[in-house]
Specification:
Radius of gyration of chain A: 20 Å
Number of strands of chain B: 0
Order of helices and strands of chain B: HHHHHHHH
Structural class of chain B: mainly alpha
Largest sheet of chain A: none
Order of helices and strands of chain A: HHHHHHHHHH
Largest interface: A-B, 64 and 47 residues
Mean pLDDT of chain A: 80
Distance between the termini of chain A: 25 Å
Low-confidence stretches of chain B: 33-39
Radius of gyration of chain B: 30 Å
Strand content of chain A: under 5%
Structural class of chain A: mainly alpha
Shape of chain A: elongated
Oligomer: heterodimer
């Protein structure tokens, strides 16, 4: 987990400060970990208002349980686990549909159309036919968003947040074999979805 | 030397770890789904990894597939991370309760003493009457038919099985909630 604020206080120092009443230290903990929490919340919760409530709920829970944190994992991993469980409970309680519902394992028609339109409308010039990095990023994000939520989370945690398998197991409470298996399927599904549309090298 | 094209698992593994040092590859062998049994694991993984790498050196098709994955992984890693569009720290800090979170072990004085005391009380409460009335307790079971004992055992096993099934169903519900296909 990257330290987003650039502070060099260890988990132990920060937790100790919070437990001694330094709420500013808890603010640092939030700053250090909110990126990872945002990844989880955005992947699991579709409604922006719900995300806002859940994010706050995650940290209020973390604060109230901080005294029980045993340093058996990184603080960021522990908070990520709270975020994951909070989102899961929220979804169970509300019986909400995940963003990404309706995944059919095929390439996205919408993306296909957008790429085709772009290619046709752009003429034959090289500059016009090549998609910008930003557009490709949008297309990739679109494909990722179409994956089942657990795939999105695992891809994000492993490839973007660079968590280890052990840390992902800690966050999701899924068996390590299941994590690996889902990650394999997620990568394949994503590659297959993108391959329908264009060459991967363009990314 | 592998002559057939590599499996998707092997391609993914190579895309992530193929350029790493052999030691790192051995540690990353877990990428391959169907691993050998523990014991001969590392040696077998090293041999298999070597086979994969040897195949990669000669197979353009598999190299292209691995390159696709490498491009994909790089692209995922470069995706912009979502950010909350409000000051989360300020919002949370303004809601923190006045009381501090409980420190482990210190929030409840005598916590460790209670840890020992409660089992002792329970053992005492069950053990002392059990010792006093031990003859009567043994007599209780002497009159019971073996059929009844089997019935009690079956009931106990059934309860354990049903609890296990319920736990499994709960796990499945959570997995289903994550929208797997």
């Amino acid at each position: 987990m990257k330290n987003k604020t650039g502070n060099h206080l260890t988990d132990s120092h920060l937790v100790d400060k919070v437990l001694r009443g330094d709420t500013h230290a808890f603010g640092l903990i939030i700053k250090n970990t909110e990126g990872l929490v945002a990844q989880i919340v955005y992947k699991m919760i579709g409604n922006p208002e719900d995300r806002k409530d859940i994010a706050q709920d995650v940290y209020l829970k973390a604060f109230s349980k901080l005294g029980g944190f045993r340093f058996q994992s990184k603080l960021s991993t522990w908070i990520a686990r709270i975020a994951y469980n909070t989102c899961l409970s929220w979804l169970e309680k509300k019986k909400l549909v995940f963003p990404g519902d309706g995944y059919d394992g095929q390439g996205t028609g919408e993306t296909m159309e957008r790429i085709s339109d772009r290619t046709v409308a752009g003429g034959h010039g090289e500059q016009e036919t090549l998609m910008s990095r930003k557009e490709l990023s949008v297309i990739l994000q679109g494909e990722i968003d179409r994956l089942p939520a657990i795939y999105k989370i695992l891809l994000t945690l492993y490839h973007q947040e660079e968590l280890s398998y052990a840390e992902i197991v800690e966050v999701t409470q899924l068996p390590e074999g299941t994590v690996k298996s889902y990650l394999f399927r997620a990568r394949k599904a994503l590659k297959d979805g993108l391959s329908v549309n264009y060459k991967m090298e363009e990314l | 030397m592998i002559t057939k094209h590599l499996s998707e698992e092997a391609i993914q593994w190579y895309a992530m770890h193929g350029n790493a040092e052999p030691g790192v590859q051995a540690g990353a062998e877990k990428e391959l789904q169907a691993g050998p049994e523990e014991g001969t694991q590392t040696q077998e993984y090293l041999e298999r990894d070597a086979d994969i790498i040897a195949h990669m050196l000669t197979c353009g098709s598999c190299q292209a597939r691995a390159t696709e994955y490498q491009s994909l992984f790089a692209a995922i890693g470069q995706q912009p991370a979502p950010l909350f569009d409000f000051d989360l720290a300020a919002a949370v800090l303004s809601q923190l309760p006045a009381t501090l979170p409980a420190k482990p072990g210190s929030a409840r004085p005598g916590n460790s003493a209670m840890t020992w005391l409660i089992p002792l009380i329970v053992i005492g409460a069950a053990g002392i009457p059990g010792y006093i009335f031990r003859k009567n307790i043994l007599g209780l079971f002497s009159g019971i038919s073996s059929m009844l004992i089997y019935l009690a055992m079956i009931t106990a096993v059934s309860v354990v099985v049903f609890q296990g099934m319920e736990t499994y169903k709960k796990y499945q519900r959570k997995i289903d909630a994550l929208n797997l296909y």
